[in-house]
Amino acid sequence: MKAVVYEKFAKAPKIMNVQDPTPEAHGVVIKVEATGVCRSDWHGWMGHDPDIELPHVPGHEFAGVIEAVGKDVKSFKVGDRVTVPFVSACGACPECHGGNHQVCGNQTQPGFTHWGSFAEYVTIHHADVNLVTLPETMDFATAASLGCRFVTSFRAVVDQGKVSAGQWVAVYGCGGVGLSAIMIANSIGANVIAVDVTEDKLALAKSLGAYATINALQVPDVAEAIKEITRGGVHVSLDALGHPTTCINSIKSLKKLGKHVQVGLLLADHATPPIPMNLVIAHELEIIGSHGMQAFRYDAMLAMIKSGKLRPDKLLGRTISLEESIAALTTMDTHNPPGVTVVTHF
């Protein structure tokens, strides 16, 4: 099969012909019809993820058609249209038995623990636990955009943040995760304030339902600006970027008893930001992590999409070829256009 392969971290990947994968007894092989280009893939390419062994194929948010099925798979068959959460759970550990597949103790992640979806085919383990059947009305590009950014935001807003109508919500970073969070929080009835450093992304945030936008380069204190708009702070704030500055500002934006949800990855030199614990204690703030979403929770999200309350298709940006994905991946730290970039041509 054709695949994007990098043999050294932070060095240009190449298009290569590599061996076609075969499924585990409990897994499947999926013919990739669309795969998103995500900042997490950039972190992996940079060498920030200890699970990656070289040579490696990136890609972890995708949709496609089942090409081959392992002998122990019961619920899916060749030809099924499917997508997956970016965390593949084992289904047997204590976390999985508790319904928390997104923090499975034996999790695998295509694009990190094994070769990913910047290729014609990709493998998924424990298919009965991890696969999600796609509605016939959903195209593959939209479905691919769900797998990491949209579902992560859904869990962050709905399950972790427990956002409700009338609340104030701040979202730091208007990339794919942030824009998804804005749309989801707005659909629930929250008043969303979007923060970014580029006007085109803030304009897109506004079009997706943000009540107010703040360009962090144009105000002296973002947290104070948010407190002024909300007259005291937000109920829930999400760091959708993953940077010490946005993490700290997110916490400082909260009203008393507020919740900070960390969604964006804080890796390498950014892994240990100086959290203002004095505020956490004095204001009884909650700091919550959010790491993907279980496959069985897709039903609630897909129901909102079917009803028209959520429109993930509005988040789509460019559609590109597998060859073009190399430039899109390697320049994500310097050139990250609005919307979700999806590979649709293999």
UniProtKB/TrEMBL annotation:
UniProt entry keywords in alphabetical sequence: Metal-binding, Oxidoreductase, Zinc
Cofactor: Zn(2+)
The keyword Metal-binding belongs to this UniProt entry's keyword annotation: yes
InterPro entries tied to this protein: ADH-like_C, ADH-like_N, ADH_Zn_CS, ER, GroES-like_sf, NAD(P)-bd_dom_sf, Zn_alcohol_dh
EC id: 1.1.1.1
Signal peptide interval: none
Coiled coil: none
SUPFAM superfamilies, per the entry: GroES-like, NAD(P)-binding Rossmann-fold domains
Domain of life assignment: Bacteria
Pfam families given in the database record: ADH_N, ADH_zinc_N
GO MF annotations, alphabetized: alcohol dehydrogenase (NAD+) activity; zinc ion binding
UniProt cross-references to CDD domains, sorted A to Z: Zn_ADH6
Enoyl reductase (ER) domain location: 8-343
UniProt record similarity statement: Belongs to the zinc-containing alcohol dehydrogenase family.
Name this protein carries in UniProt: Alcohol dehydrogenase
